[in-house]
């Protein structure tokens, strides 16, 4: 069997309802949120391609130009039908296995992604969909999902409800009698799911920025670095800011 082509697809657009334009907002050392995510993803050893899936809406012209200028791979598709956009991005770049990342999760950890990809590959005949989002001990905001292109195509061709077209994973998760769903946990012995690390609002943006600017989070942090910083903050006055 030939080696499968593994690609990360990052969902990103400028038209966020609660925080418009957040993907290009500065995060640390002059690096924007999306730029930081892409730099971090480039450190993954198990990934062949990194693609940004954005929309054809004119609001995303600025984002597309940014990606073009920085030589990033990208695909533009439907704004409302995220499933179709995702499927066509994977098809356009000939991916066999897709790693799904969203642009509101800047604190993704390359080592965690690599570990999940290895686990998925090692258990390829027993898993269709792997996630650390639901029912796991990871902080919310390190969200990584992995699935093969076959079930993505099945979803794209058969999903009919509006929410299944909008949310990539709903089609799989609602059919756990058909698809082999697995959830990935870390082995550090503690549950860190109480921490919220995604950026949805201005308040989220300010506190995540503070982890770098005041908390001492290194640019190329690993999972242990992140947990140490979070637990330190948890015992200080910022506690409420990072606990969901």
In short:
The chain has 244 residues and is α/β, with parallel strands linked by helices.
Features:
seven-stranded mixed β-sheet, 36% helix, Spore Coat Polysaccharide Biosynthesis Protein SpsA, Chain A, two-stranded antiparallel ribbon, alpha/beta, 244 residues
Number of helices: 10
What is the molecular shape?
Answer: globular
Helix/strand structural class: alpha/beta
Count of distinct strands = 9
Beta-strand proportion:
15-25%
Share in helix? 25-40%
Low-confidence stretches: none
What strand order characterises the main sheet?
A: 5-4-1-6-8-7-9
CATH architecture: Alpha-Beta Complex
Biggest pleated sheet: 7 strands, mixed
> What is the assigned CATH homologous superfamily?
Spore Coat Polysaccharide Biosynthesis Protein SpsA, Chain A
Computed Rg: 17 Å
Keywords: Nucleotidyltransferase, Transferase
GO molecular function, one term: nucleotidyltransferase activity
Protein name: Acylneuraminate cytidylyltransferase
Organism: Methanospirillum lacunae
């Amino acid at each position: 069997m030939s080696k499968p082509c593994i690609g990360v697809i990052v969902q990103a657009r400028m038209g966020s309802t609660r925080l418009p334009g957040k993907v290009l907002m500065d995060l640390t050392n002059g690096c924007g949120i999306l730029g930081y995510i892409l730099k971090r993803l480039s450190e993954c050893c198990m990934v062949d391609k990194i693609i940004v899936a954005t929309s054809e809406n004119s609001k995303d012209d600025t984002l597309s130009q940014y990606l073009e200028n920085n030589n990033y791979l990208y695909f533009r598709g439907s704004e409302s039908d995220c499933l179709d956009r995702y499927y066509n991005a994977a098809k356009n770049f000939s991916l066999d296995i897709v790693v799904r990342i969203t642009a509101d999760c800047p604190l993704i950890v390359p080592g965690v992604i690599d570990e999940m990809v290895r686990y998925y590959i090692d258990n390829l005949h027993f898993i269709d969909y792997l996630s650390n989002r639901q029912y796991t001990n990871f902080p919310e905001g390190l969200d990584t999902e992995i699935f093969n292109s076959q079930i993505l195509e099945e979803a794209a061709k058969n999903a009919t409800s509006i929410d299944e077209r909008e949310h990539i994973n709903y089609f799989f998760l609602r059919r756990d009698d058909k698809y082999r769903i697995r959830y990935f946990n870390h082995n550090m012995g503690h549950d860190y799911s109480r921490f919220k690390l995604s950026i949805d609002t201005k308040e989220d943006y300010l506190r995540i920025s503070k982890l770098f600017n005041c908390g001492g989070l290194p640019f190329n942090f690993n999972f242990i670095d992140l947990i140490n910083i979070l637990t330190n903050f948890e015992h200080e006055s910022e506690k409420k800011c990072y606990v969901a």
